[in-house]
């Protein structure tokens, strides 16, 4: 709560200064002039883009936890042998950043560049790893003494110096035109949530997370290995929600709010059909690969909330993960089942590995390590996909205690727009507060509020309370 207050205060100060002068002139402007200012760009935007405000569906049955699911209320057939086609048809397309350095990679190839070490730097496996070497715990024999080491204390540790950007760290680029990424399958987990609900978790693996720069210096908070994901939540085969991971948080949307791209449908065997379908479109930020629903500049929330840090997205190379992916049906609990041949070849043990997918945070004395107030240059790599709360009922992976208004992780009905020069149509639609403001009636009150609070204090409060 204290952090939230501090944040609001901070936002107020940075937003109120440029707005102060406009607030002062208000008494001299009459209603007609304000109406003249207000050409209702939001309605225009809805009209042009055929966005229908999405109705929240209130009467749908509850989403169940894994232990509550039985044969009578499961959504998927018990012996399901194929990923449902609606999951593939609604797989998000991902626009990578146009000047991205670190592209997606195949986890199978990636692991070959690592050995396995414990937190003191002792070797657990000192030869190049294969994905099959990853598992939940390891037997270590030392002076005839056998000990079991749990994987959660272990680190995949690069053989090459990752600070020098070896080729394998750069990942693989999607094919222009089709979005096919031959050498970097995405990883799909389909989880039955009971009562007609099904969650499709699309995981995107990148060999490196390049952190942001502060006033030209950086990067800060970089790490080797980067697992990001999106969640498409279906009810009876119809997509209802989409959640996007970004740093340790993310954003939930009504599915209808998300931008769509028309694409030819692929049949169950991956063959192109003449049928045109609408696919959701998301954006992966430069370096950090945080996912957003719009292009432009996106201020970070955590863990840098006092820093002017932002992510950037644009319409760079388009990746279509539905053309190449590993896939599993997971019950959210114990059983996980590979759903195609390239997935079966990976085995299942890697899913149980609880260690990091990249190097341990470099020690302070390492010349590659640097410190800026709030963050190190290189931090720990991430943990694997099965430990990202796939059994969740909420759309969010975790609930942020410093966002007290958002405890339920509500799904946004309108796109959260990027700011800045690179944002598209930002002039028309305004920032996110603009979206909220356009719901205000009567119009003259809205005009005044818009005039006074445009990007102002009230905006921030509204944004945080109603998002
Ligand atoms: C999940 O695990 C719990 C505890 O191990 C068990 O009681 C429950 O039956 C499991 N649920 C499923 C769907 O396997
Ligand atoms: C199905 O799930 C509901 C919870 O929504 C539970 O109350 C009910 O007992 C389950 N059905 C059966 C047949 O167990
Ligand atoms: C790692 O996996 C490979 C097979 O992929 C196997 O040949 C090798 O023995 C394993 N190494 C260890 C230390 O388990
Ligand atoms: C095995 O480990 C135990 C306790 O860690 C130690 O007391 C013992 O000396 C070790 N034995 C050998 C042969 O190193
Ligand atoms: C999991 C899976 O899809 N396995 C298939 C792999 O391919 C053989 C034939 O080539 C099938 O028989 C398996 O069912």
UniProtKB/TrEMBL annotation:
<dbReference type="InterPro" id="IPR009291">
    <property type="entry name" value="Vps62"/>
</dbReference>
<keyword id="KW-0732">Signal</keyword>
<dbReference type="GO" id="GO:0006623">
    <property type="term" value="P:protein targeting to vacuole"/>
</dbReference>
<dbReference type="InterPro" id="IPR053102">
    <property type="entry name" value="VPS_Associated"/>
</dbReference>
<dbReference type="GO" id="GO:0000329">
    <property type="term" value="C:fungal-type vacuole membrane"/>
</dbReference>
<protein>
    <recommendedName>
        <fullName>Vacuolar protein sorting-associated protein 62</fullName>
    </recommendedName>
</protein>
<dbReference type="Pfam" id="PF06101">
    <property type="entry name" value="Vps62"/>
</dbReference>
<feature type="signal peptide">
    <location>
        <begin position="1"/>
        <end position="23"/>
    </location>
</feature>
């Amino acid at each position: 709560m204290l952090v939230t207050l501090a944040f609001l205060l901070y936002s107020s100060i940075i937003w109120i200064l440029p707005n102060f002068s406009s607030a002062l002139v208000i008494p001299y402007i009459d209603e007609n002039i304000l109406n003249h200012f207000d050409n209702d760009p939001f309605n225009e935007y809805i009209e042009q883009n055929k966005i229908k405000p999405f109705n929240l569906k209130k009467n749908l049955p509850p989403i169940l936890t894994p232990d509550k699911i039985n044969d009578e209320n499961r959504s998927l057939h018990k012996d399901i042998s194929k990923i449902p086609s609606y999951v593939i048809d609604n797989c998000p397309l991902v626009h990578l950043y146009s000047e991205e350095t670190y592209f997606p990679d195949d986890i199978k190839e990636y692991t070959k560049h690592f050995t396995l070490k414990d937190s003191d730097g002792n070797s657990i496996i000192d030869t190049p790893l294969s994905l099959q070497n990853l598992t939940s715990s390891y037997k270590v024999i030392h002076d005839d003494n056998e000990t079991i080491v749990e994987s959660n204390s272990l680190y995949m540790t690069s053989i090459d110096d990752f600070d020098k950007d070896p080729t394998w760290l750069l990942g693989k680029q999607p094919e222009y035109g089709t979005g096919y990424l031959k050498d970097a399958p995405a990883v799909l987990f389909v989880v039955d949530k009971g009562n007609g609900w099904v969650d499709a978790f699309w995981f995107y693996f990148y060999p490196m997370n390049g952190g942001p720069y502060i006033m030209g210096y950086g990067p800060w908070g970089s790490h080797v290995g980067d697992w990001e994901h999106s969640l498409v939540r279906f009810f009876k085969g119809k997509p209802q929600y989409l959640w996007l991971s970004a740093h340790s948080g993310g954003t939930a949307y009504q599915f209808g709010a998300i931008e769509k791209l028309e694409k030819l449908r692929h049949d169950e065997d991956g063959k192109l059909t003449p049928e045109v379908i609408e696919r959701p479109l998301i954006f992966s930020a430069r370096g950090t690969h945080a996912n957003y629903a719009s292009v432009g500049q996106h201020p970070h929330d955590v863990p840098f909330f006092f820093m002017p840090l932002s992510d950037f997205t644009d319409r760079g190379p388009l990746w279509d993960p539905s053309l190449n992916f590993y896939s599993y049906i997971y019950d959210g609990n114990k059983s996980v089942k590979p759903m195609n041949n390239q997935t079966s070849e990976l085995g299942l043990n890697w899913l149980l590995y609880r260690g990091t997918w990249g190097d341990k945070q470099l020690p302070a004395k390492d010349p590659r390590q640097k410190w800026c107030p709030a963050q190190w240059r290189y931090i720990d790599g991430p943990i694997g996909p099965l430990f990202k709360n796939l059994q969740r009922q909420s759309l969010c992976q975790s609930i942020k205690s410093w966002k007290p208004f958002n405890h339920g992780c509500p799904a946004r009905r309108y796109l959260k727009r990027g700011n800045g020069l690179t944002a598209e149509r930002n002039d028309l639609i305004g920032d996110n507060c603009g979206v909220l403001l356009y719901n205000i009636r009567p119009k003259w009150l809205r005009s005044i509020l818009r005039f006074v609070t445009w990007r102002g204090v009230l905006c921030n409060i509204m944004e945080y309370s109603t998002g």
